Target: Archaellar assembly protein FlaJ
Amino acid sequence: MALEGILDRLRTSNSGKLPFEDLYADVHARLYKFFIEDKYMGSDLLFMLTYMAAIITADASRPEIFSYTGARAEYVSTKYIRRADLLVKRWGYSYVEALTNVAKKIESQMLFSMVNRYANAIESGVPDSDFLTRELETIRNVYKSTYEQGIEMLKKWGDAYISMLFSGALIGIIIMVSIAIYAPDNIQGTLMTSYLIIGLISVIGIVTMYKSVPADPKTHRLQQGSPEQNMIHRMEKKVVPILGIIVLLLLLLGMNFGLVLMLIGMLLFPLGIIAYIDDGNITLRDSEFPTFIRGVGAVQGGKGTTIAPAIQDIDKKSLMYLEPLINAVFSKLNLGLDEDRTWQRFINDGGSYLMYKYLNIYRDALKLGGKADTVGQIVSSSMLDQVLLRDHRHTISMGFMTLLVPMHAMMVAIFLFLYHILVVMADAIAEKMADFSEAGAALTSGQGASIAGAMGGSMFVFSNFDKDAIGFYVIIIISMLTISNVLAGKIVSGGDNALVYFYTSLICSVSGLLYIVAPIITGIFFMIPVFEGV
Model:
């Protein structure tokens, strides 16, 4: 109540608006468009057309098509259909006028073209069933072409990201060596150049790869998911906060940074493995679901039965990954349990985003009186296209990860080994400087003075090496590379957000192990020669 009173006073004193309310609304709209609408438009438009083509088999009228489609708020594209429906029902527009006016506000070229084609088809007297059937095939081809172009761009930008990041790391290494040689006064300003270069490369590469392909979520992210997803949600509520507190304390206490990275990798490893297993299971279930839904639709349409007898008649032996879920549904339906809750449990346990979307389309179309065999064919064909495209993306992502992890290990290793070599050289030179200064005092004239000056000047190059500042610089660079490569791996591979745990565990473990072994290996293989009797 007190907060509401404060907000009311602020609105009263600011012409009825909160301070920065318009700015906040504008920023929110831009972020929503960038991260949600632009990313999900392609796949959601395919879902929407599949839904419309499915319900048209029930001989739905045009007002019913617009009403039912506009009510599907989970698709970002349906809000424009909902606006057209409101213009018709509340303001008396014709469907042609409503679609034409709505199209003027659409920025997505794919949806803009589809809405205008729909308006032209209505104006030309083309039946909705004919238009939607053809339009669904058009959108499938357009979505497939867009997705494949995005995959090719993702592949090229993935290679470019690795090349640019490696080049940025080399620049950072050159800067580190230059500081060791010349010891400039403004070290932090010089190091900031390296931070900016690597940060800029990381941001440009990650954002470009993120924008390359349409959104393709694997998990439905409902409150209840597959057993693996439920386990991750229970574990991460405890593991992640505890890990954050432990890491913060260890860093404040000055614990070895490599051990901290290894700890992060070990604690996140169980979450990452579970997420990886769940991702693989969803891939296998999604590959079988088009066959399942097409078979159920064919049996229902051919025999005129309900869905339970149709499930009994399909060949479940060929659906080895879906069979446990199908048997559970069949048992519950035979016991007379609520059908909606039974199928919701099927969706939850499956954990798949595509199964969640397409099963609801199938069941909604049948509830409206759609033809089961036709609806099953429509739904399975749309989902099969997305499954095949996802398989193509998986091939690209595996190649990228095969290159990313060794590249990350190489960059971190070069930084660490070179840093420790410089430290060994600086320590050895600092230790011998006193001896050379004494020897130089004895050699006061002639050729001896020239020799002493030359030797002392050459060794002075590394005598002012700031180990602490450069050591902190190496830690920051390793952290930037680790975070960037974790995000790059997740974006390229797709899948659920929980896969971040897997990539974080993998890359942090590699970085931590190299951080621990680098000084040991350097001490074994890199020795400064000692010249006795000089």
Observations:
- DSSP finds 18 helices and no strands in the chain.
